[in-house]
Amino acid sequence: MFTGSKKELLDLIKREGAISIDDVVDQVELAKTTVREHFLQLERDGYIQRDYVRSGPGRPSLQYQITQKGNSLYPSYESVMMRKMIKYLKSKGDDETIENFFQEFWQERIEKARKSMDEASDIQSRAEALEQILEEEGFMPEFDIDEENEALTVKECNCPFSEVVKETQLPCKLEAMFYKKLFEGDVERTSYIAEGDNSCTYDISLKAS
Question: Are the C-beta atoms of residues 23 and 53 closer than 8 Å to each other?
């Protein structure tokens, strides 16, 4: 989690929704050059994004908004609520609805990843495209490509579904399927957060793909 002036800037953007650098300077005790440098780094790291907003006559103004990755830094009760909802559906014997939901959710993830990866020309570019998606989703991914042995290792250092997994193992099952469908090769999960490991690690053979 950020501390100091960067945290102050993120909090301000979060509260305002969209804000310009000039408006930030009016509200914080930081030089404009310092604010600009922090914004450039936060944007480069994917925590904020710029947009041109028209609020009246004249040219649109450059403003900054927090991204999904930026929002993930703030407390959320959504995962706990999702767990309670799954528990409720299970108590009503509605396991089919639970399974259908997760199947459709993961299929959307697969289609999104395929679309992004299909635009890449080699395995390095494909891995970078997938890494960006997983980063946005909160997995804190790490990638290792072994071109000589045509293998890829993906390490998910965070589980954004940890509360859900306490009620159903479907996300774990579907995440393995996620990689099998994307790379159309052999996939082995060699570490597993749900069993006490520090990450979920997937060893993927690229020979078939």
Answer: no
